[in-house]
């Protein structure tokens, strides 16, 4: 008898078979318990839907995790194990509760128009708004002949078109919106679109930046940046609605937000692009890189590789959005060149000195990132099947 390439005696085989049968039984019990938990979560979802409560309940989660960790410890089970399992289960809850739909915060809105509504982010927001009971109309590239009819009587117009055409579209097409209509955008830079909206429309205006891609299963725990424009009391319902979807709203000054995006998006994505470009030019053998990879390298390769599974236009839009990003990217290049010079000069002490300087600057974040990445790396390893 063999298990993979290991030979086993008949006695060992029999013992293992018996124990594995018992494990199968326990796993089947777990499955039934999971089914029970999902049914209860569905009931919680219905209660929350009626009461207009958010999907994500951080205090309940923290209290529950703390209790289960203590109980785990007294049973000789690792607290981290129960925490991992429960967090994974709660991710499932977010998805399940979403399908029940959401309370409609403002039933007086007769029409929501999403410009660019057939794009990926537009589709996601259309789905969330529809699940919340709003009548959603889409206005995409081919619908402009009917624009007046589509926009007539809109209570909310949400602009989600490529950055490069956002301001121009707002200025040239959205002049005649109803006075009380909310004009909002989902663009990943905020100053210019906000200014364009304020100049074009005299009613309520707000800039939003969802800090996630369209492939998130649910908005629970995702961040949406809010840059206030005008008449915030008129769009308070929209922010409350987004919070009910589970997202965390982070208010920011548009200029500050855009400056952060030069590092968080433009520079980050650009360096991922160059990393991929370099692998391509070096004709790296990805198969063997993966074979030799440690979990952190696998994660890094996944982060870079996923870029190239998406639309080049989308990333071009993000990277080219702000002229000022050039400064952040050039600084990076200069730092790279400086570090390379140190390497060429064999200045090992210099490297260690700078490393310490940076570590000190990271401060408490460094150990925090280390422990966060530890569980990510363990998940990466769990995903391997051989
Ligand atoms: O208790 C709730 O409010 C739930 O929605 C259930 C549940 C869970 O799966 O246990 C899911 C999401 C919340 O963030 C907290 C807990």
Largest sheet: 7 strands, mixed
* Run of helices and strands: EEHHHEHEHEHEHEEHEHHHHHHH
Helical amount among residues, as a percent range? 55-70%
Strand content: 5-15%
Radius of gyration: 26 Å
SS-based structural class?
A: alpha/beta
Helical region count?
A: 15
What strand line-up does the widest sheet have?
4-3-5-6-7-8-9
How does CATH name the architecture of the largest domain?
A: 3-Layer(aba) Sandwich
**CATH fold name of the largest domain:** Rossmann fold
| E-strand count | 9
Would you tell me the overall average pLDDT? 94
Give the overall form: globular
Under the CATH scheme, which class of the largest domain?
Alpha Beta
**Integer count of domains:** 3
Unreliable stretches (pLDDT < 50, length at least 5) are none
What is the CATH superfamily label of the largest domain? NAD(P)-binding Rossmann-like Domain
Q: Which cofactor or ligand species appear?
A: prephenic acid
Q: Could you tell me how far the N terminus lies from the C terminus, measured between alpha carbons in angstroms? A: 20 Å
Domain Chorismate mutase: 10-101
Domain Prephenate/arogenate dehydrogenase: 110-373
Enzyme class: isomerase
Protein name: chorismate mutase
